[in-house]
């Protein structure tokens, strides 16, 4: 039997209500009581294996989210705990990791692209198309004006120094690799990550 | 890390120096406690502060920030003087016997070949004397005056216990107690593990701090063994992965190097890459460099990379300097040499030294793009937040874009942990609002620029237009597709070169990097990841926690690079005959026909012990280096240099005070303070309740540690009339922080060269966004100078002054910019 952790909770929860109360002789009253008890919030949640986003111990975590991943359901995280099967953290989390739910749902999470024009005193909410079109245009203008195809010795060097990039320290390898391909194919050399700090 | 987190439990001695694992890596530190309980291990902590790691140590010793090389060189001297080294290991597995060129010298703080004007060395004498066949000369008897062992003895002879104590401020008795304990692991069956972090890297001599410890470990025979190794406890969830994939100025994926201007052709580039073995019969792994490189170019440019165009070698940018690292980038920005900057999940306003310089630099840009899940200081650098970020927005002409991204809970993919494990993680929820994945955003920019270049032309479009982008949805590549691309696959049928037997069919995912070819028949985006996503499936998604013999390996949990190997250099866990040094904890052993054990051999699987191939197969000499040859910029042996801001003279060589090979920009040198104005030693650190500058956005962490403070000892507090919780003004030459003082017994004055030296601890976590109170950020104070090899900034040792001050007005600690509409005030 392929028993998931969530299934296990469901089974034992139901079993407890049915058997122990029943065994104490409450009979039908016990069944009624069991039906009125609010079920464990996690029994209705979807459990997902993930990795803590902070340090490089990379503790295994279990994320519980509402929503069953049906097409029109938007899921949201309701609980995060340590993965007891993980060989390093074995279910434990530190004061940072134990607060992961608060970073996922932080008031400072960004939800809309914003733009600040030169000299402006405020942010303006913009569409993704506006933001990406404008960034791509600015990058191309700068690249076309400042790209160095050959150095003074006449060697082909194909580098672009006047726009730079700092790459993420918590993004996945896959995001990192696609970022690498894009940045280097433009000739970008002022390119670094958080390894130094 | 050379070893795994769980393997720490196999240690007999755990040395935590240059880190504070109990607070910064608490769940990893549990394995230290396991070692203490189950393996009767002793824990040694050397740190300027009595940290929570120190509170469970068997021996704790204080040390002045920035003097670790002096301490560890003293340890080496102790080991050699007391003959506490693992002789057979040192003789067979290190370069102790190799003979160095005549002409190599060290005098008055400088090695041979120094050029003062360039602040760099001509390293030609820093190498072995070679015989007629081009092999390094050897003296196994260690009689030759220029064998590495004798040069080392001479070099470290100055680091007597008295000298160590004079430089470091560590009491001699504590220091000698630690030397004695470390020396016990010279016994072949005993191991010491070194756990370190930014406490060693963030110095102008950071790389040499780590090298000195690696030398201690080689002398003790502790590299490659269970419970041993050099274990860098990395700070971010995927900083190892970003480094592996080469997102650093001078890197390509898999630790290959970016081409330089002088490497005008592919052949010229390859000349310096194919290390020729320096000992007879030695395997030199980098001899396969060409296969890794050609397969990488095939991954980048597909059919457009071919033999006729040198595999599109010219399409990669070339470097005219060692690297465009972060310090150089902000120097260029301040000089008006940069127009655009993109910060992807990175907050330089908090993370980089000399915050004023960072703010001025960003103000000079034409455009700044910030991709982040959170509202960062960098994105808001132009707003007026009062004394923590004074600004006149109308004067700043930078266009700023703030692009909302997903976080870990909202995406699939792999992260590489400190022990090099690639662990797949699964999406648990949808992103808030319009937040998008980095893959979607980068693809959006790529597609737009590609369209523009194809339509309008422009500067050198070839590399961009020919970039491989054959994803099912070009607007948002699936992580699985990208993961497979990094692993690599055969582009044509590949045969075994020896037998001609078919090895791979076209299209087949590679099982291992040994299958890579340099004729264009294979591709791999990052050769060290080959084997992570094969035709058998996604190896990084494996979740079998079983661990044979409870060795601390768990070989079927996720996947480790390279080749799912968990302990690097594990051939050195066995003696030259192939038997484990520690029979109780063997890693791999020779069974008569092959190497077998709990881990994947870091060695030819059927190479016989009698062949005498050295265990360090990435090195041309096959052995660990006590003498680094030309690999380090400031010398082949480590030497104590003072931090660039230091209250002490360099008592070893007063004329050469600080790292002579570190690059210092004139504008930064002008911003260095002296001890007559700033008499105290500052050092930055992290609290266990916070992660960098992120968790000030998380309510629970903001409640636990709500506001900025500095930590000072009771003696200094009394001297300066600062009571517990008083407001203080902390200043360096570069700026000032007004915050509360936390007076503790954890920092005590150190007697350095006869003078009491006070240390001020500066936690780094506060800024002007988030739900915690506003702070100035410790980087307001720190100097803009870096390590001579890596340019990691010197955050751990600089000069400060501290004075008591009056409490600031309430608005200075509340949230919200002063320009535009006021947000709700500080909630705490």
From TrEMBL, chain A:
GO terms for biological process: anaerobic respiration. InterPro entries: Mopterin_OxRdtase_4Fe-4S_dom, MopterinOxRdtase_cofactor_BS, TAT_signal. It is an enzyme of class 1 (oxidoreductase). It comes from the Bacteria. This is Formate dehydrogenase major subunit. GO terms for molecular function: 4 iron, 4 sulfur cluster binding; electron transfer activity; formate dehydrogenase (NAD+) activity; molybdenum ion binding. Belongs to the prokaryotic molybdopterin-containing oxidoreductase family. PANTHER family: FORMATE DEHYDROGENASE-O MAJOR SUBUNIT (PTHR43598:SF1), TUNGSTEN-CONTAINING FORMYLMETHANOFURAN DEHYDROGENASE 2 SUBUNIT B (PTHR43598).
TrEMBL record, chain B:
Its main location: periplasm. InterPro entries: Asp_de-COase-like_dom_sf, Formate-DH-alph_fdnG, MoPterin_dinucl-bd_dom, Mopterin_OxRdtase, Mopterin_OxRdtase_prok_CS. Keywords: 4Fe-4S, Iron, Iron-sulfur, Metal-binding, Oxidoreductase, Periplasm, Selenocysteine, Signal. CDD domains: MopB_CT_Formate-Dh-Na-like. One of its GO terms (cellular component) is periplasmic space. Residues 683-798 form the Molybdopterin dinucleotide-binding domain. This is Formate dehydrogenase major subunit.
């Amino acid at each position: 039997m392929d028993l998931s952790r969530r299934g296990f909770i469901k089974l034992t929860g139901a079993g407890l209500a049915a058997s122990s109360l029943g065994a104490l002789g409450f009979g039908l009253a016990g069944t009624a009581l069991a039906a009125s008890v609010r079920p464990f919030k996690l029994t209705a949640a979807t459990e997902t294996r993930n990795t803590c986003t902070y340090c490089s111990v990379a503790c295994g975590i279990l994320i519980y989210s509402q929503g069953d991943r049906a097409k029109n359901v938007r899921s949201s995280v309701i609980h995060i705990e340590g993965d007891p099967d993980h060989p390093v953290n074995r279910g434990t989390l530190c004061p940072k990791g134990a607060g992961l739910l608060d970073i996922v749902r932080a008031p400072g999470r960004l939800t809309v692209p914003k733009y600040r024009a030169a000299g402006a005193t405020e942010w303006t909410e913009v569409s993704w198309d506006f933001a990406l079109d404008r960034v791509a245009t600015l990058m191309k203008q700068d690249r076309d004006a400042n790209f160095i195809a050959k150095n003074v010795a006449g060697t082909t060097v194909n580098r672009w120094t006047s726009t730079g990039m700092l790459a993420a320290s918590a993004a996945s390898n896959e995001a990192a690799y696609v970022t690498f391909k894009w940045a280097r194919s433009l000739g970008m050399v002022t390119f670094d990550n958080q390894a130094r700090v | 890390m050379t070893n795994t987190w769980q393997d720490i439990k196999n240690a007999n001695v755990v040395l935590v120096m240059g880190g504070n694992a109990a607070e910064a890596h608490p769940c990893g530190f549990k394995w230290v406690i396991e070692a203490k309980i189950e393996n009767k291990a002793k824990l040694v902590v050397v740190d300027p502060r009595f940290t929570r790691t120190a509170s469970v140590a068997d021996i704790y010793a204080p040390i002045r920030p920035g003097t670790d090389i002096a301490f560890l060189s003293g340890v080496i001297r102790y080991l050699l003087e007391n003959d506490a080294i693992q002789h057979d290991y040192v003789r067979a597995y290190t370069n102790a016997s190799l003979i160095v060129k005549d002409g190599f010298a060290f005098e008055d703080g400088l090695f041979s070949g120094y050029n003062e004007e360039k602040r760099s060395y001509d390293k030609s004498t820093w190498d072995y004397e070679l015989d007629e066949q081009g092999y390094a000369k050897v003296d196994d008897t260690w009689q030759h005056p220029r064998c590495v062992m004798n040069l080392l003895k001479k070099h470290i002879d100055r680091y007597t216990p008295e000298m160590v104590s004079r430089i470091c401020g560590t009491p001699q008795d504590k220091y000698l107690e630690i030397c004695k304990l470390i020396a016990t692991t010279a016994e072949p069956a005993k191991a010491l593990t070194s756990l370190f972090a930014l406490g060693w890297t963030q110095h102008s001599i950071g790389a040499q701090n780590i090298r000195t410890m690696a030398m201690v470990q080689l002398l003790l025979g502790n590299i490659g063994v269970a419970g041993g190794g050099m274990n860098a406890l990395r700070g971010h969830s995927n900083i190892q992965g970003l480094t592996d994939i080469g997102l650093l100025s001078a890197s390509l994926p898999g630790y290959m190097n970016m081409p330089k201007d002088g490497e005008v052709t592919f052949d010229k580039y390859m000349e310096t890459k194919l290390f020729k073995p320096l000992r007879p019969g030695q395997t030199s792994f980098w001899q396969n460099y060409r296969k890794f490189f050609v397969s990488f170019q095939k991954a980048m440019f597909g059919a457009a990379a071919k033999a006729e165009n040198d595999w599109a070698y010219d399409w990669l940018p070339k470097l005219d300097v060692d690297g465009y690292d972060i310090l150089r980038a902000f120097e260029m920005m301040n000089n008006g040499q940069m127009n655009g900057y993109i910060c992807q999940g990175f907050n330089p306003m908090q993370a980089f030294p000399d915050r004023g310089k960072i703010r001025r630099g960003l103000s000079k840009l034409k455009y700044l793009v910030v991709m982040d899940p959170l509202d960062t200081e960098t994105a808001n650098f132009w707003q007026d937040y009062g004394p923590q970020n004074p600004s006149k927005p109308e004067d700043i002409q930078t266009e700023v874009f703030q692009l909302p991204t997903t976080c870990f809970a909202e995406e699939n993919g792999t992260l590489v942990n400190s022990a090099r494990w690639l662990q797949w993680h699964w999406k648990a929820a949808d992103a808030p609002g319009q937040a998008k994945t980095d893959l979607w955003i980068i693809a959006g920019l790529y597609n737009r620029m590609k369209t523009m270049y194809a339509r309008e032309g422009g500067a050198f479009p070839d590399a961009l237009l020919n970039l491989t982008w054959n994803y099912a949805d070009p607007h948002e590549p699936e992580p699985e597709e990208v993961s497979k691309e990094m692993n690599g696959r055969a582009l044509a049928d590949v045969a075994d070169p020896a037998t001609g037997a078919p090895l791979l069919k076209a299209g087949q995912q590679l099982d291992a990097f040994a299958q890579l070819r340099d004729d264009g028949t294979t591709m791999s985006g990052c050769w060290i990841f080959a084997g992570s996503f094969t035709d058998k499936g996604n190896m990084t998604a494996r979740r079998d926690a079983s661990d044979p013999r409870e060795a601390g390996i768990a070989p079927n949990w996720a996947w480790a690079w390279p080749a799912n190997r968990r302990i690097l250099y594990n051939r050195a866990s066995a003696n030259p005959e192939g038997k484990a040094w520690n029979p109780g904890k063997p890693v791999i052993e020779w069974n008569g026909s092959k190497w077998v054990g709990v881990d994947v051999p870091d060695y030819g699987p059927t190479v016989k012990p009698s062949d005498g191939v050295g265990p360090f197969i990435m090195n041309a000499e096959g052995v660990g280096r006590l003498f680094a040859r030309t690999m380090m910029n400031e010398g082949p042996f480590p030497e104590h240099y003072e931090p660039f801001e230091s209250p002490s003279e360099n008592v070893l060589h007063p004329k050469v005070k600080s790292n002579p090979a570190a690059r210092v920009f004139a504008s930064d040198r002008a911003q260095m303070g002296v001890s007559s104005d700033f008499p105290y030693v500052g050092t930055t650190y992290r609290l266990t309740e916070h992660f960098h500058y992120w968790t000030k956005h998380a309510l629970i962490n903001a409640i636990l540690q709500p506001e900025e403070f500095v930590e000072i000892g009771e003696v200094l507090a009394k001297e300066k009339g600062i009571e517990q919780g008083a407001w203080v003004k902390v200043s360096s030459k570069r700026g000032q922080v007004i915050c509360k003082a936390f007076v503790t017994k954890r920092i005590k004055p150190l007697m350095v060269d006869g003078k009491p030296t006070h240390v001020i601890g500066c936690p780094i976590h506060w800024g002007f966004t988030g739900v915690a109170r506003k702070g100035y950020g410790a980087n307001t104070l720190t100097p803009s100078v870096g390590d001579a090899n890596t340019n990691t900034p010197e955050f751990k040792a600089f000069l400060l002054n501290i004075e008591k001050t009056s409490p600031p007005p309430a608005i200075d600690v509340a949230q919200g910019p002063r320009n535009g509409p006021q947000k709700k005030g500080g909630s705490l």
